[in-house]
Amino acid sequence: MKTNDPSPPPRSNLYLVGLMGTGKTTLGKMLAKNLGMNFLDSDQEIEKAVKKNVSQIFHQKGEAHFRSLEKDFISHGHPQENCLVACGGGLCIPQGMMESLKERGKVVCLWASVTTLVERTSSDKTRPLLQNTNPLSALQELLNQREERYKEADILIETDNLSPVQVVELIISKL
Q1: At a CB cut-off of 8 Å and minimum separation 6, what does 109 contact?
Q2: What percent of the chain has pLDDT over 90?
Q3: Is the distance from CB of 43 to CB of 127 less than 8 angstroms?
Q4: Do residues 150 and 109 lie in contact, with contact meaning Cβ atoms separated by under 8 Å?
Q5: Distance set, CA 105 to CA 58, 97, 154 (Å)
Q6: Does the pTM exceed 0.70?
Q7: Arch. (CATH architecture) of 13-174
Q8: For 71-88, what is each residue's pLDDT tens digit?
Q9: 164 touches 22 (CB < 8 A)
Q10: pLDDT of residue 78
Q11: Is the dihedral of CA 65, 95, 82, 151 positive or negative?
């Protein structure tokens, strides 16, 4: 005799990628709640694990070390199902990382113009890659380096001129 299991079937993970300031964490929390998924921010999870913030890790150990922590987090640092992960801006860039994300779930890239990103990030002093005299130039350079990789995501969502609620609705409609 079969019993009816009232719990829904497991859902594969969802990964939000994109440059800093595209709204991965803010939108991720809203989207996870709407979808009934657990929310994780890769940067926050790494900070908890090593008891240092991202800026300290970059300053003390370098970007390569931080990228290895991101790889470890994706490989075995989070649940394998029903989890929405807001990924750090550079997490999906190294060879093999986008592929690892796609093996574990669906990848959504959040996109915004460089001007919008500067507006959203200009007062945030916790972003090590923007601590220079020309954040607009720094963001444009990052975008130029990463754009091709970001466009490998399963879904690309432009967030310029949309409210967070509109972006969440758009993502849900694309899923």
Answers
A1: 16, 17, 18, 150, 151, 153, 155, 156, 157
A2: 71
A3: no
A4: yes
A5: 28, 12, 10
A6: yes
A7: 3-Layer(aba) Sandwich (3.40)
A8: 999 999 999 999 999 999
A9: no
A10: 93
A11: positive
- Between the CA of residue 9 and those of 4, 6, 33, 132, what are the distances in Å? 12, 9, 17, 47
Question: Residue 82's CB: how many other CB atoms inside 10 A?
Answer: 18
Region 31-56 average pLDDT: 95
Query: 35-49, 55-69, 123-137: lowest mean pLDDT where?
Result: 123-137
Return the amino acid letter for 127: R
Q: Which residue has the tokens 């969502």?
A: 157
Confidence class for position 21, pLDDT limits 50, 70, 90: confident
Distance, in Å, from the CA atom of 132 to the CA atom of 145, rounded to the nearest integer, reads 18
Torsion, CA 25, CA 125, CA 130, CA 13, rounded to 10: -20
Residue 131's CB is within 10 A of a number of other CB atoms, namely 13
The encoded tokens of residue 94 equal 């190294």
18 is written with which tokens?
């994109």
Tokens, residue 119: 């507006």
